[in-house]
Amino acid sequence: KTIVIDAGHGGTDGGARAPDGSALEKNLALGVARSLAERLSAEGAAVIMTRDSDVKISLTERPAMANRSRADAFVSVHFNSNKVANSRSGMMVFHHKQDPLSRLLADCIQRRLAVKGGMPSLGIRSDTTVYKSGFAVLRNATVPAVLMELGFINHRSDRKRMTHPSFRTDVAEAVVQGLKVFFGDASEKKEE
User: pTM (2 decimals)?
Assistant: First the structure.
C-alpha cells in the first residue's frame, strides 16, 4: 500500500503552541510523522511524506500529493488546542463530511489510538463540525483521508504524554494497526 503522511503545519506556520512555549505543534507533528513513516516502511508500505523538514507546504499541495500518487490512504498529523488551558483532554480523528471510506479509516485508527495513545478517546467526527466546508486537506483528497488531533497541547497531562519519548512509537504502532484493520490485513482483536 502507498500511504501519504502529512506532518501538519511547518516553516513559518508553527500551529498550536504550549502556553509556556515549550512545545510547538509543527515539531511534534513532524516527530510523529517520521516515526509513523519508519514503522510503515518496516511493514512494507510505500511512504510519501508531505514534508520531512521544517518547511511550509500549502494546504492544497498536501492532498494533491496523495491524489497524484494514487495513494491508498492519507493521514494528517496534528495536535489540538483550545481557548482555556487544561479544560479539554484527549485524541480525536476527523474524516471529511460523511465519506464512508474516510469515516471507516478514522474509526479503525481511533480505536487503536484509544488503546495505545495514553489519553482519553474523543472519538471520530466529521470535519464539517469545525468548518462548514470541512478541512482543506481532507476536502481536496480523492483517497481515504483522515486528520488526527493527538491531544491538546495546552493541557498539562496531554502535553506531558505527547512530549514523552514513547509517544511517537505508540502512536505509530496504533496507526499502523488501524491501517491494517482498514485494509483487511488484521482483525479488530486487540494486538497488545
Answer: 0.96
